[in-house]
Amino acid sequence: MFSLRKVLTAAISAGVIGALITGTAVAPAQAAAKKKIAFVMGAESDPFFQAMKVGAEAAAAANNVELIWQGDPSEYSPATQIPVVDQVLAMNPDALVLIPTDPTALQASVTKAHNAGIPVINVDTRVNDLTNVLSFITGDNADGGAKAADALAKAIKYKAGKTYQVVVGLTSATATTNVARLDGFTKRLAAKYPGIKIKDKAYSQSSPAKANTNVSNWLTKYPNLAGIFAIDGTNAAGAAAAIQAKGLKGKIALVGYDAYKTNVDLIAKGIFTALVAQDPAAEAKLAIESLVKYFNTGSATGITKEVVIPNVVLSKTSTAAALKKYTYVQK
């Protein structure tokens, strides 16, 4: 009588024997594929995003997920970022971490991902409508702007009744981090230092060279300039270079954002009065961990909708340990 069980048993036995003879292993069941998380930042050359990558890679490795890290090499703009988002969405990732360069222009990208069933987290910056965003993780930007105003006022030895000219260097007029920092800065000036007037603003698209040009122009145009607020790291780097090139160390108060190692080193040299440091690695790590939690539970339960990470102000009075701790780690 024909027996299917006997045939299958014989076939399996033959396969095992064949494997023993040839020295090959019997293949186990196909392991489940790793989850893929696409992470799209603004400008890859920016040390802030490089430090963020360190945190993202560590979290991805610890949680056994594949990280797809993408971004324009140097320009921070929606025109360069949107095609990158489209490219990674075409790769069908299991999730998207997006640092939108513009809150309005990138809204459609979030909607596109959501409609494809891809959960989205915003880090650092955000889109206008967070309805389809699982979580938004950022630094305390308004507070950072206020602390920058305090540091600048202290550096220029502010006295009530006197007028002081300052300028502000930004990457973008619409990036939500820049908007919040400027808002915190201007509100603190109005409340505590009304004699400090913002004379001008300019944008760099995350290019230190462009920021350098902007500051060089200001130093020529405004001979009575008292201080500069460089609202992010690339503007801080460009401003520091321009001040040094013109031999104005100690004559123009410079308060910057982001603890690039090169910028931190310039605190001791008297170029920076203060730097507002964020924790980009922690932001990226939390984004990856939140998505892993979502993968494991299939639910947003336990994932905080909005997370604000405190800033730290670094200056000459900071300890060596603090400077080392908050300096951004780069690859």
From TrEMBL:
Entry keyword set: Signal
One of the record's GO cellular component terms: cell envelope
UniProt GO MF annotations: carbohydrate binding
Cellular compartments annotated: Cell envelope
Keyword Signal annotated: yes
Stretches assigned to the Periplasmic binding protein domain: 37-295
Main location as per UniProt: other
Pfam annotation, one family: Peripla_BP_4
Recorded family membership: Belongs to the bacterial solute-binding protein 2 family.
Entries under PANTHER family matching the protein: D-ALLOSE-BINDING PERIPLASMIC PROTEIN-RELATED (PTHR46847:SF1)
Name by which UniProt lists this protein: Unannotated protein
Organism: freshwater metagenome
